[in-house]
Specification:
CATH topology of the domain at 35-376: Tachylectin-2, Chain A
Largest sheet: 8 strands, antiparallel
CATH class of the domain at 35-376: Mainly Beta
Structural class: mainly beta
Number of strands: 32
Distance between the termini: 28 Å
Shape: globular
CATH architecture of the domain at 35-376: 5 Propeller
Helix content: under 10%
Number of helices: 3
Radius of gyration: 22 Å
Length: 489
């Protein structure tokens, strides 16, 4: 049963018959990996980087595995040794998994950065840039796999967005050519591709862009994977008012058949600190995206819902940089959102987060409070929710940062006190002022401060901080801000 069917329909809950069973309580369950990987940052440990050094992921089930491709971002806590410098590596990190929990580092997709991309970027960035490959995006076509990628110079619009193809998700990859390229003469920046094979029309669309000018969409030729009209850079879909200061990037386009809506996920603010994920939706794949309040994403207002932002549950240093997501459907019909996050307080180590994604009765979505995809589905009864809960109100950052090119300046790499969403305690007592719809597994509860939130999705999950399996909830308040909860005892 997929996530939206579970909420929009009225399922038959076979486990409800066991009303005489003991009430659920959190049970011990060790974490499958540690968050701090500072001991294995050397290149000689790269095969151990299952969930580590993940940045700007793109994930899809291809054959027997979920494959994930990501930016060449590597945390180093020491100078590489001579043998490490001599290691043959490459560009675009590739991982695979059968369960979305244990990830195998396969290697790198490309042995080198395509020459044409290097020449374009450096010719338009005063000889700088083109030192790695950013934000790959994977999509199958016929019996081939297409891997979109971008090469750029940081803080410049000198960017090259290219395409490679292979007959296997693990390559070898053949360069097809340039999809889009930009420089100081163009209003947009050709980075962060996300491509959709529109199931409604059969047309292909690529969303891309950054803080420079906003996000754009261009039509592709399905047969070639390149733009339908040579040289076309597309049209504006989303922007922010002060683009040099207020970051907007990382579009991810996703279609949900049950609502017949296209969801455009975006990332706001500096990637090392207050990075957060927002979402808009439209009845069309290429345009007319609006937010929770009906505002067009092309306008310069800040949009909602907000799905992730820096957070900290008790017993953990917390996470920053929770952005640049990919969205996909897994075996069994459940939806997930994968994204990077940086371990606080230094915010240097980059760890993969895979969160279950739920589509709500109002057509919007929310993600799990916990980043773990290995908990089997189960249903709960009203009495299973009685106990102490930690809750987090996921709010946008309030601190005014001095940024440039949408990113933090030197010395602003750690969160300010008010930038991290921290948990508070909520106790649900029997016959209290809350209610639980057991058929829909939906909770209504009054939160500290007085607001009553409805249609909170209740589901089984893993409490990472306490290393135990528990019951979780997620949803949106009346303003489009996420509300997270986990039962702690």
């Amino acid at each position: 049963m997929n996530s939206i069917t579970r909420l929009l329909a009225v399922p038959v809950l076979c486990l409800l018959a066991g009303c005489g069973a003991p009430a659920f309580s959190p049970t011990p369950s060790p974490n499958p990996w540690a968050d701090d990987y500072s001991a294995i940052t050397g290149m000689d440990h790269y095969k151990e980087w299952g969930t580590y050094n993940v940045h700007d992921p793109s994930c899809r089930k291809l054959g027997d595995y979920y494959y994930m491709y990501s930016t060449d971002a590597i945390f180093h806590n020491r100078r590489p040794t001579e043998s490490e410098r001599a290691m043959k590596t490459g560009f675009v990190q590739v991982r695979r998994s059968k369960d979305l929990v244990q990830w195998e580092f396969v290697g790198w997709a490309f042995p080198e950065i395509p020459k044409e991309a290097v020449e374009w970027v450096r010719a338009n960035a005063d000889g700088h840039g083109a030192v790695n490959i950013w934000a790959p995006y994977i999509i199958p076509y016929g019996d081939k796999y297409r891997l979109y990628y971008c090469v750029s110079a940081f803080g410049r619009k000198a960017s090259y967005l290219g395409l490679a193809e292979a007959s296997s998700p693990e390559g070898p990859w053949t360069q097809v050519g340039c999809v889009a390229r930009t420089n100081d003469a163009t209003p947009m920046n050709a980075i962060d591709p996300s491509v959709i094979d529109d199931p409604e029309t059969g047309r292909w669309w690529m969303h891309y862009g950054s803080y420079f000018g906003g996000l754009y969409c261009v039509e592709l030729n399905p047969e070639t994977g390149l733009t339908l009209r040579p040289g076309d850079l597309g049209h504006l879909t989303a922007r922010r008012a002060n683009y040099r200061k207020d970051n907007l990037e990382a579009p991810e386009i996703f279609f949900l058949p049950e609502t017949r809506q296209y969801y455009l996920f975006t990332s706001y603010d500096p990637l090392m600190t207050t990075y957060n994920v927002r979402v808009g939706r439209s009845a069309m794949a290429p345009d007319d995206f609006t937010d929770f309040t009906g505002q067009a994403l092309r306008d310069t207002t800040n949009n909602f819902p907000i799905l992730t932002a820096p957070y900290r549950f008790a017993g953990h240093p917390g996470w920053a940089g929770t952005g640049h997501c990919c969205v996909f459907q897994a075996d069994g019909g459940r939806y997930f959102m994968a994204h990077q996050a940086r371990l606080s307080p230094q915010n240097q180590q980059m760890v993969l987060h895979v969160r279950q994604l739920f589509f709500l009765p109002n057509g919007w979505c929310a993600v799990s409070p916990e980043r773990y995809a290995g908990t089997p589905e189960r249903t709960f009864r009203t009495r299973d929710l009685v106990g102490d809960w930690e809750i987090i109100r996921v709010r946008e950052p309030l601190h005014e940062r001095q940024t440039e090119a949408g990113q933090v300046l030197h010395g602003e790499g750690e969160l300010q006190g008010e930038e991290c969403n921290v948990s508070t305690l909520l106790t649900l007592v029997e016959n209290g002022s809350w209610s639980f719809d057991e058929k829909r597994q939906a909770l209504t509860v009054s939160l500290p401060g007085g607001e009553t939130v409805t249609d909170l999705v209740v589901f089984a999950g893993h409490d990472w901080e306490k290393e135990q399996d528990t019951v979780l909830f997620t949803g949106l308040d009346s303003h489009g801000r996420s509300v997270w909860g986990k039962r702690v005892k």
